[in-house]
Amino acid sequence: MSPARRILALWFPRLGAERALRIARPIEPGPFATVAEQGAAQVLDSLSIAASERGLQPGQPLRDAQAICPALLTRPADPPGEAAFLAALRRWAGKVSPWVAAQPDNTLVIDLTGCAHLFGGEAEVIALMERDCADMGLSVRAGLADSLGGAWALAHYAGRRLDPVRSGDAIDQEARATRSRATKRRHWTRGGTAPRADLAPAEVARIAPPGRIRQALNPLPVAALRLAPETETGLARVGLRRIEDLTGLPRAALARRFGLQVARRLDQALGLEPEPVSPAAPDAVFAVRLTLPDPIGLIEDLTAGIDRLLPPLGDKLAAAGRGARRLRLELLRCDQTRQSFDLGLAHPSADPARLRPLILQKLDEAEAGFGIDVIRLEAVQTEPVQAAQHAGHLEATRAAKAGRTRTALDDLLGTLGARIGLEAITRWHPADSHIPEKGATVLSAAWSAPHDGDWPGSDRPRPLTLFAPEPVHAPQDPTPPARFRWRGQTLELGRAEGPERLAPEWWLDDPNWRSGVRDYWRVETGDGRRLWLFYAHGGALSAGWFCQGQFA
Q1: What is the DSSP string of 501-548?
Q2: What is the pLDDT of residues 404-414, one digit of tens each?
Q3: Of the N and C termini of the chain, which has fewer Cβ atoms inside 10 Å?
Q4: Measured over all CA atoms, what is the biggest interatomic distance in the chain, rounded to whole angstroms?
């Protein structure tokens, strides 16, 4: 008989601040916080224990926090550094079990099934992890249950008070002027609002005994189910504030009112739906770094450092048969701050000669501050690079010419992408449709191959400029009008060629083609303009004349 599944969750609620304190090591401990950019404002991201004791909260604007606590010390938040630190903690947690996974909210989940007895029991395992975290200067909250969701809930919410919800019937949340009208409201026994339950649940053990996960989770708030904030608010408004309020409800009604995610999260927390612990596979890291004896700040020095890093990075990529598709340049300053740049390539490459120009374009944006003492270069996204097949002289010559052209185009796309972003560079590809505006599709130039061959021709000429249909003021007659008004100008008809009848795609409901069948005419006006007009015969929309393009 296999042992019962046991999952341990370790939550580090102050990971960002305590990691920064480990690096800075202030002489006098005091309130400390990391600051993140939220739109155009700076807000507190992670707080130390001293900062929380002063009444500060995560998400609070920095200006308000400094007004409350003038002695607050801050550092910029470093999400990449915090992710790397959590990965290091994941390797540390492997001392108790090989199945360790990281969650996006600074949480580690460990599958302790069959491992706890090696350390004297589950309580001893938690005590061991807490002692190690105390030695590292980290705050940790642990939870252990039969399921991943249950362990996560106990680690985050066991023993916490429920947050009050503002209500029109909560007299203590209203102004004094409105409290005098409270006596006029009906008693809850006569249809009024029921008295509010106690918001301070009893202390809940962080270790749920095997088979008793429901009893351990019942007092916890619904936020412990990892729900979206709007879902939590909706549940609280109808009085469903604790998990025990949900466990007795019919699942079908609960799903209809609040969505399938509520029932799914509840089943995961209670262990009714499996949620395995998937440890992250060791990723192949293609990165190089240069540690400098003295801080630098000149572009020439940075260029020399990059020239030393590119060859070993290219050798690592070439040995693995991969090419860099996205690079990250990180400049670590001597004041423990960093600046990073992301660059994209239109085609994967491991050639330092092709990577160097893209990196040098970003050096103008580098801010040395008090000096840069570490340069790090990493290929954060790579793709396999296929080896070229040998060919004869004639085929090799053609392939070399085509390769040089493709390489030059890829380098151009990479250069432009470093300035304006690869997503802003697009190319047209032919599409299989008789609808004029659907004759081509727009694709990203960096993530698509050019069309192989000539552009498919048409037996009827198409305008050089194609735009959305614009109304033309003319009589509702299929014959081209002798005089019409378009874009505020009255134009005389010189000659007209057509019609070319196009019908909408009957298998699609295109709102732009609800005017029915169209008759297209190539029209030349008296002042020399060559327009592409069509007459819509009418369908869901009324009939009339429109202009959709202009010839050269």
Answers
A1: EE---TTS--GGGTT--EEEEEEEETTS-EEEEEEE--SSS--EEEEE
A2: 556 677 767 77
A3: N
A4: 99
